[in-house]
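User: Please predict structures.

Assistant: First:
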Amino acid sequence: MEPVAYLDYNATAPLRPEALNAMLPVLQSVGNAASPHGLGRKAAASVAEARGQLAELLGCSAGEIFFTSGATEANNTGLRACLMPASRLITSAVEHPAVLETARALAKERDIELIVLPVDPDGLLSGDSLKRALRTNRPTVVSIMAANNETGVLSDLKMIAEMTHEADAVFHTDATQLVGKLPIDLSVTGIDLLSLSAHKFGGPQGVGALFIRRGLGLPHRPLLYGGGQEEGWRAGTLNVAGIVGAGAAAAAAEANMAAEAGRIHELRDMLEDSLLRGIPAVNVNGARDRRLPHVVSITFRDAPAEAVLAAMPGVAASDGSACSSGAPEPSHVLLAMGRSREDAENTVRFSLGYATSRSEIVYTTEVVKAAVARVREMLASADVAQAARRPEHSGGPVKENTARSWPSGLGADV
């Protein structure tokens, strides 16, 4: 069954019509952007136009943008370029794995001192903790995400940039969830490096970019060696169609950002308020006044997210980050915010976007209410039945199977 309501924009947004329309002619043409003939020059011109559209969205120069396959590659490239052996990396406990895993790998490879800062129960980073961590004579890089992919909590980028530069350190941010949703002006924020993925704001999957501030003077340390494309930062034939789609999506996002943000914020609040009023024993995760306008992370007590999602196949949502789905451990973000393992496993993330409709929110509200009630009822019945089968007297301790299996019928639409 195809999803009726798509509320998983933080995983990937639907391709914007503007991006599709821009990509189709390129997909039907031929030309390597590195070729000197006319078709190659036409492809190169299309890439240049897209680079300019993305620069306009970010408030930077087109020459400061280097295309990659996505934010994961951009994070890896940026951090590897910044971090010299015996230097120091400061990051937070709620970063995306594309940053945390890269940081851990570099700490081993290059004898880098890794400092992982905690967050408070609202998911916010303390400026005091960052200030203390910056007191060092070692070359330092700070990598703090702009907006959390699970809770939508926003970082104070201006404060972080100012503190970082006061300590003569370099500031990188993974802005994957922020770009295209809220305004950002790299000409004034003081960010040195920024990573993004086009598919988070309606571009195609498989295209991203790394912003590197001009004058930063980083040595070229590409992940891929070869033809020297992207001024030596990323070798390989450019994905012209994907880049064109990314540029068109960036232009559409910038043109409609104010209207989209306001409308989506209203729909998000409508969904959130309805669930809080209509379902007992629930709570929202993350600072309520410091979040992206389209994200709600909500914990349903005594209702595992996996079972809730199975009980509502007509709604596309997520049990945490899509990038870590299937992992045996619960959300590292929620655990870092002080949530219990059980609460983390009972949390669903809804993320809205440019194409979300009011009717989808009305439908989702009713379906989620029914799904949570059904899961709770069936699990309570299963627990009662298990207790009834448990021997009252035995010669030793009773060994129980702790693996959870959902009662039959949870996959049916409600």
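Second:
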Amino acid sequence: MGAGAVGPLVATLEHGAFDLKREVAMALWQLCKDGRHLTVAVEAGALPLFLGLIRLPDTEVARLGLSFTQVVLDLMKGGVKMVEEQDGIDAIESVQYADDEYLSGLSNFLVNKYYGEDYGLEEEAEDDDGELPPWRRPAVG
């Protein structure tokens, strides 16, 4: 990490042959899974590449993409918005009904946890000068 390996790894993930991409994705995920090097990898452009991996038919690679996305959502400040801005919700939802139980289960969990029915309520409140629209206000009584 001190030698600046993340940039070349991300470039290889973007432009390398498929088998090499799989190995690089595993290496980057291993470096980032505990959050230590996550910001460096995301700043180097890893997030959209991992989101792209989710959509691939290779289950192992899709799992890596979804697992990396989970780490971003769980550990990065602003990660929820970052994933959304990169069309990540669509990528996550693309495997909600996958035959692979891990993919479908994790996808459903992430969608419900981060983009469920309460998602965006804070922004709506800010847009309305702190007041929720009538249909979003709790019932009184």
